[in-house]
Amino acid sequence: MSHSESASSHPYDQLTPDAVLDALCAVGLMPDGRLQALGSYENRVYQACLDTPEQGSAKVVAKFYRPSRWSAQQIGEEHAFSLQLAQAEVPVVAPLTLAGQTLHQHAGFAFSVSPWRGGRTPELDDWDTLEWIGRFLARIHQVGAQQPFAHRPPLNAQQLGRQPLQWLLAHADIPPHLRQPWQQAAEAAVGMAEAALAAHPATQIRLHGDCHPGNILWTPLDDEGRGGPHFVDLDDARMGPAVQDLWMLLSGDRMQRSQQLSTLVEGYEQLRDFDRRELSLIEPLRTLRLIHYSAWLAQRWQDPAFPRAFPWFGSEHYWQEQTQILQAQQLAMEEAPLYI
Q1: What is residue 2's predicted lDDT score, i.e. its pLDDT?
Q2: Catalytic entry in 51, 233, 236, 245
Q3: Choosing from 32, 126, 128, 210, which is the catalytic residue?
Q4: How far apart (Å, rounded) are the C-alpha atoms in residues 324 and 330?
Q5: In order of start, what are the domains of the chain with their CATH numbers?
Q6: pLDDT under 70: residue ranges of the chain
Q7: I need a labelling partner for 53 at 20 to 30 A (CA). Which of 38, 143, 183, 286 fits?
Q8: Pairing, β 31-37 against β 44-50
């Protein structure tokens, strides 16, 4: 498979444990040598333990950004959004300001450091939890609507559908007998998604952008009422419609998804109005994510973490399944939107 990163000189080959510890020392922290790699593929993320009289036995999380993905300005906007949310007492994990800044450079890597926060994946089959998350998302969007991003790319059909599709057709090693069926399904699905987004323009606000359950951590309430959900990753924050941060929390059949969405919106509208016209964008946005996800995997395949984590990618079964899923998405986009 042809890819955009060189296997012989993958940048993360240089990010050794010593390099991570040296980076932390360079911003005035004193790690005790204990590092734990955390689950992240796009970037490299490590939990580090600090052990000094001033810092006690605190834990921090060091995030090393994938080279050449985001510019310093784009990362700066992510950090500014996180800090605005934290200032508004929205429970997100914002980067620490060290040596007067939140973004640092070491050995060719841009990185940030944030406090460590524990938690578990929320139980999304619990209605109270869903309603709480709805309120939480509304608080994020209240801050997100205050000003736009100037440098981060928007969430639209061109960025998340058309461009990844063109890249896959030019570079992906799709088995010859499966290429045409997949291409036909992908082009038709992306075309329908483009038309739907054009026909139903929505208000664009700053979003989390990648609001799946794995990016929400839940902590039980303590005696002082502290706990509940918090976000740990705004790496994919973009401008887009509010519904983007709701639909990835839905699962199950149509009735189950409608019930879940109703509960999320019930919590959301306790704090912020939700434009129900955006419900028609759920399946188009899901379609764009499917295309973008295939391209994301293909473009990162020379990163050793990807074949280990996604061994099924690129197989004949994968492309057959994707063809069927994209054909099903065409039908889903023709159906009436979910009701709430």
Answers
A1: 42
A2: 233
A3: 210
A4: 10
A5: 17-115 (3.30.200.70), 127-334 (1.10.510.10)
A6: 1-9, 52-57, 223-225
A7: 38
A8: antiparallel
